[in-house]
Specification:
The chain has helices spanning 8-11, 25-34, 43-67, 75-100, 102-112, 122-164, 180-185, 187-231, 249-301, 307-346, 355-368, 384-404, and strands at residues 375-376, 380-381. The termini are far apart. It is built from 12 helices and 2 strands.
Length: 405
C-alpha cells in the first residue's frame, strides 16, 4: 500500500510527528485571544481572560436575554432575534465548559502527548498524519463558512446605512429595554458592540466545535492503529511447541504483545470517557439548540424578508446542520471502528497459539463487543440515528408552527 508522502516541513517542526496535538495549535491561539485557554500564560492573561468572558459573553448574553421581555408583539422580529439567541446560549455552554473544566481539558491534551498514544512505525505515523491533516482542513472550511455567514449578516445593515442612508439597526437584537431616543443616540456603540460580540461568539463556536471533532478524529486514528496492531499481533517468530498447555518464551512475548494492545484499547476507552465527561453537557445543549434553530429558521423562511436575510438564513441553517451532522457521523464511525477490532484480532493467525493467548483474546473480544461511544448528558450517543431523530423532531415542530400560524 502506497502512503501519501509527508512534507519535509512537517518533519522539521519543533513537535515530532507523533505529537497528536499539533493540529490544535490554531485552536490554542484563538483560545488565548478569546480568554478560554485552559492554561493562562500568566496572572495578567488570567485577568484578561476573566474580563473578556465577562464583557463579551456574560454581559452580552444577559442584555440579549432581558431584551425579550421588552420586545413588541411582532412575530418576524421575535423569530429573527430568537434564532441568534439560541446560538448564543449554545456558545455560553461551551465557554463555561472551558472555564470550569480547565484541568480536565489540560488532561485531555496531556494524554494525547503521552507515550502510549504515540506511533511506533511508519504506517502508524501515516494514520496520525492524515488525522491531523483532516482536522486542520476541516477547521479552515468551518472558519471560512462561519466567517462568510457572520460577515454577511453584520455588514448588511452598515452598508445599507452608509450607501443608501437607511437607518442603522443593531445586527443582533434591538435592546428594546432602552428608550428609543437613547438607542438612536448610541446606535454606533451598540452596533459595534453587538458586531464584535457576535464575531467572538462565532470564533468560540468554530474553535470549540472543531476541537471536539478533532478529539473524535484522533480517537478514530487510535482505533485504526489498534486494528493494525491486532491484525499483525501474531506476525512474530514462534518456536514449535507440541505441548500447547505450556508456553514458550516466544509465546510469552506474544501474550505480552497482545496485552500491550489491550492496554492501549483500555486507554482509548478511558480517553472517550473523559471526552464525554468534559463535553457531555455542551454537546447536549448544542444538539438540543440545533434542533430548535433549524425549526425556527425553516419557519422564518415562510415569512417575508429581504434577499440578504434569506442568504443569511440559508448559510446559518447549513452551519447548524453541519454542527450536528459531522459529530454524529464520526460518532458512528467510532462505534463501528471499535466493533471492528474483534474482526481484526480474528483475522490474525490465532488458531495455533497457546491457551493463555486465546483466553486473553476471548476477554478482549467480549470487551470490544460493547462499542465505544460519546454521549450527550448520558441521554443519546453521537450517531447518525440521533441526527435523524433531531431532523425529524425539527421538521415536526416546524409543521406544528405552520399549522398554528
Amino acid at each position: 500500500m502506497s502512503h501519501e508522502k509527508i512534507p519535509c516541513y512537517e518533519k522539521k517542526r519543533g513537535n515530532t510527528m507523533g505529537d497528536m496535538i499539533r493540529c490544535f495549535q490554531i485552536n490554542g491561539k484563538f483560545w488565548y485571544m478569546l480568554g478560554i485557554h485552559p492554561k493562562p500564560k500568566n496572572t495578567f492573561h488570567f485577568i484578561y481572560s476573566t474580563a473578556f468572558v465577562i464583557v463579551f459573553i456574560i454581559i452580552y448574553d444577559f442584555l440579549f436575554s432581558i431584551n425579550f421581555f421588552f420586545m413588541p408583539n411582532q412575530l418576524d422580529l421575535f423569530i429573527e432575534e430568537l434564532i441568534l439567541y439560541f446560538t448564543t446560549v449554545g456558545v455560553v455552554s461551551k465557554v463555561l465548559t472551558f472555564v470550569f473544566m480547565r484541568e480536565k481539558i489540560t488532561q485531555l491534551l496531556s494524554i494525547l502527548k503521552s507515550d502510549l498514544f504515540q506511533p511506533e512505525n511508519e504506517e502508524e505515523h501515516h494514520i496520525l498524519y492524515k488525522a491531523n491533516k483532516f482536522n486542520v482542513t476541516y477547521w479552515r472550511i468551518v472558519a471560512v463558512v462561519s466567517f462568510t455567514s457572520n460577515l454577511t449578516h453584520v455588514t448588511s445593515p452598515l452598508l445599507l446605512h452608509l450607501i443608501f442612508g437607511a437607518p442603522l439597526s443593531p445586527p443582533v437584537c434591538s435592546y428594546s429595554f432602552l428608550p428609543e431616543n437613547t438607542t438612536h443616540t448610541f446606535i454606533y456603540p451598540i452596533y459595534f458592540y453587538q458586531s464584535i460580540g457576535i464575531h467572538f461568539h462565532m470564533l468560540n463556536n468554530v474553535n470549540i466545535d472543531t476541537f471536539i471533532l478533532g478529539l473524535m478524529i484522533l480517537v478514530m486514528a487510535q482505533l485504526d492503529i489498534l486494528a493494525v496492531k491486532l491484525k499483525n499481533v501474531t506476525n512474530m517468530p514462534s518456536a514449535i511447541n507440541h505441548d500447547r498447555s505450556q508456553c514458550t518464551d516466544a509465546d510469552r512475548n506474544l501474550i505480552l504483545k497482545l496485552n500491550s494492545s489491550l492496554e492501549r484499547y483500555n486507554e482509548v476507552a478511558k480517553f472517550c470517557e473523559l471526552i464525554e465527561e468534559v463535553f457531555s453537557v455542551s454537546l447536549f445543549v448544542q444538539f438540543s439548540i440545533a434542533s430548535a434553530v433549524i425549526c425556527v429558521c425553516l419557519f422564518r423562511f415562510t415569512l417575508p424578508s429581504t434577499w440578504q436575510y434569506y442568504i443569511f438564513l440559508g448559510t446559518y441553517i447549513f452551519i447548524m446542520i453541519i454542527q450536528i451532522l459531522v459529530p454524529s457521523w464520526f460518532g458512528t464511525r467510532i462505534m463501528e471502528k471499535s466493533c471492528f477490532l474483534s474482526q481484526a484480532i480474528y483475522s490474525s493467525d490465532w488458531t495455533p497459539k497457546p491457551r493463555a493467548y486465546k483466553r486473553n483474546m476471548r476477554i478482549f473480544v467480549e470487551r470490544a463487543s460493547r462499542p465505544l461511544s460519546i454521549t450527550g448528558l448520558k441521554m443519546f450517543p453521537m450517531s447518525l440515528s440521533t441526527f435523524t431523530s433531531i431532523m425529524n423532531t425539527a421538521y415536526s415542530f416546524f409543521t406544528l408552527l405552520r399549522n398554528m400560524e
